[in-house]
Amino acid sequence: EEEHETQRFDPGAPSPFNLADIRAAIPKHYWVKNPWKSMSYVLRDVAIVFALAAGAAYLNSWLVWPLKEPYDDSHYWSSSSCHNNCFCSVGFSGHGIFSNDPRLNSVVGHLLHSSILVPYHGWRISHRTHHQNHGHVENDESWHPMSEKIFKTLDKPTRFFRFTLPLVMLAYPFYLWARSPGKKGSHYHLDSDLFLPKERKDVLTSIACWTAMSALLICLNFVMGPMKMLKLYDIPYWEWSYFRGGLTTLDRDYGVINNIHHDIGTHVIHHLFPQIPHYHLVDQSDATESKKTKS
User: Fold this and answer.
1) What range does the domain containing 221 cover?
2) Residue 30's closest CA among 249, 248, 260, 272?
3) Which InterPro entries match (predicted)?
4) Is residue 61 in a domain?
5) Mind listing the pLDDT tens digit for each residue in 119-140?
């Protein structure tokens, strides 16, 4: 019977429910934004990052050498994870779900995004394009399959730095600088077709913040030394519609780090309704799951 059901499933068939059905299943209070609650998550993440860095600096001595190596190993992973939390928090600012105040969202977004060398407005705008075109093979901004034709046009350095481990871990900075293969422009260029003319002032503000953070990191390299900076900062670093594109995303269960990463693994509902605060993601996913399974 299960095999028969699998054979009957048609991934190209229209969904038996629509976006309005999913929205109707979400209680109204899940749409309410609480800036104090959002800020509490930001402060938690920042406090953890600084605490981990302080621990690494304190244990950077042979007097406590039995603790140094195991701490470093765990510090690299956990600090990187917490930097990702800051990135997630900024993403919520970019979606406008951190608070109802665009100015507060922008301030928090610039502070956190610049700290990890990501231009806030540039990424906010391109990420908006990604959400508006999710699941679209040609128009999706960042997460779309590369055709064989485009792949064959890439030069050897581009293939090497984008697709060869461990360099593939640096793909995101390459994406910010030159977008995805087959697309033109940059998150750092005011005339990029990523941005509307009215958005250039915002992009320029973010580039200025990015430049200031880069200058700060260079100064810290001279003050603290490149090896310590490497340790504390560098290592941790079909027929389409909006609705159907959102349904092609996948939820991921990250176990014990679900909460640490602000439950961003609930990606289906986040893509369908990016305006809902992250601390409601799990509950609203459960609320809409019954609608999807009944249909």
Assistant:
1) 140-225
2) 272
3) FA_desaturase_dom, FAS_N, Fatty_acid_desaturase
4) no
5) 888 888 888 888 888 777 777 7
